[in-house]
Protein: Flagellar P-ring protein
Amino acid sequence: MLGILRGAGATRSLALRILLLGALVGFGIAPVAAETVRNLVSVGGVRSNQLVGYGLVVGLNGTGDQATQVPYTTQSLLNMFQRLGINLPPSVATNLQPKDVAAVIVTAHLPPFAQPGQTINVTVSAVGNASSLAGGTLLMTPLKGADGQTYAVAQGNIIVSGFGASANGNSTQVNVTTAGTIPNGANVERAVASGFDQPGPLQLQLHTPSFTTAARIADVINQRLGYGVAQAVNAGVVQVQAPADPNARVNFLSIIENLSVDPEAPIAKVVVDARSGTVVLGQNVTLGACAVAHGNLSVTISQKYLVSQPNPLGAGQTVVVPDTNVKVKQPQAKLLMFEPGVTLEAVVRALNAVGASPSDLIAILQAMKAAGALHAQLEVI
Structure:
């Protein structure tokens, strides 16, 4: 038997949000719909690469970095002047305090099979104390990969979705003004070698490792292309014998990624977000035999002040007297009984019937798991 009595914290007015995965129709355990292979796997060696670079944004309307607090912005600007053949006198260089320049970090994702000349999107983020990048222009910025090689060069006008204004000590801001994007703002300068271009077998990597799904993918491929073409190496990898010719290799993968497979039903899992009070229950969640006692204890303290005023001709003094009222309320606990194999429908309806708050529901599920009555994985995020 499982008993749970909640205290005063259960009276907080938090909205109970329960998302039911796979239980929107009849709360039953619906069969898993067939999926194409492309939605279940990714091809080994076919991946995007992260790029990063440091640059300068110019043309800001007085919202750039403050030179005295961010000296590297001025240093970067002087270095750029020297590369362009502009040599400032030392007296001018040491007193240079531009307000329309900001140091930024530029990031981008280089997609697989990107070739020189293609363009990619970039994100520009301030790293100094600039208040806004709106209206700024990013100067030529090399974007490098993890190996230190330059794979793209970014430049262009920045699009900032945020807006901010201030006057006389008052300010207002919508969204973020210190980060923006440049659509198609970088040109690819170097291609990344892909494992897909190398002859030999290919590996199909499952997004969600599953022995059953891996075996089914291998069976479907063998039925379509001949036995021995695919082999399930483990729960996360299916290896296929692909042709060496590039054109045949592409057609081979095109056939595979459009095959339909019935993936394994997801494991029974309950995900709890304690910060927002969100509880997600999977479709296969069931309970063993248990009983749950749910009740709330609330203590309300109210206080008001009364003024005691003496007669005008009296010798007394005016005093303030507090009047405190304490109320304690403890509703009768509601006992819920669950038979073995109870499905999601009964669990949700019963917990909603007793009016469980998010904190109550989280505590009930944790206690059920500790008692061995909850037949599901409990994950708290």
